[in-house]
Design goal:
mainly alpha, 434 Repressor (Amino-terminal Domain), 2 domains, two-stranded antiparallel sheet, 5 helices, 2 strands, about 5% strand
C-alpha cells in the first residue's frame, strides 16, 4: 500500500474530515487529494498529518507496521527534517496490517498510567520546593 493510501485510510478510520486534516497540515484540500495518489510525501506534511491522527509518522512508511512491539515513538520531535522540504518514500507497496483497537487502548492506558505517575512525582517536588522557599524566607528574616 502506498503512503497516500495509508494516509487516506488512517483519516477515515480516525473519523476526521479531509478538511480538518488538510487545515492542520497547512495544505490545500487539493494537495491532500494529490498525496493520496503518491508514494512519497514531504516530511513537514507527514509529521503534521501523523500528529493529528495520533499515529507515529513511521506508521505510514513501514511495510507492515507493528504497534505491539513498542518500537514506535510518538510526537513531532521524532521526525527528522521537520522544517526541511524532504521527500520520504515508502519501503514497499504490500498491504498494511492495522493495529487492533485492543492494542491501541492498552497502549493508551499504559501511557495514561505513566502520565499519572509523573504528575504525582511533580506535585511532590512542587511541595518540597515550596517548603524550601519558606525555609529560606525564614532564614532571611532572622
Amino acid at each position: 500500500m502506498i503512503v497516500g493510501e495509508r494516509i487516506k485510510r488512517a483519516i477515515e478510520e480516525a473519523g476526521l474530515t479531509q478538511e480538518q486534516v488538510a487545515a492542520h497540515a497547512e495544505m490545500s484540500l487539493a494537495n491532500l487529494y494529490k498525496i493520496y495518489k503518491r508514494d512519497s510525501i514531504e516530511s513537514r506534511y507527514l509529521v503534521k498529518i501523523a500528529n493529528i491522527l495520533h499515529l507515529p509518522y513511521s506508521y505510514f512508511l513501514d511495510e507492515e507496521p507493528d504497534f505491539s512491539s513498542g518500537n514506535y515513538q510518538r510526537g513531532v520531535g521524532n521526525a527528522a527534517g521537520n522544517h526541511i522540504k524532504q521527500k520520504i518514500m515508502s519501503s514497499g507497496n504490500e498491504g498494511v496490517g492495522v493495529a487492533s483497537s485492543a492494542i491501541n487502548v492498552e497502549r493508551i492506558q499504559h501511557e495514561l498510567e505513566l502520565c499519572k505517575a509523573e504528575k504525582v512525582s511533580l506535585e511532590e517536588k512542587l511541595v518540597l520546593k515550596d517548603e524550601i522557599i519558606e525555609l529560606l524566607r525564614g532564614r532571611k528574616q532572622d
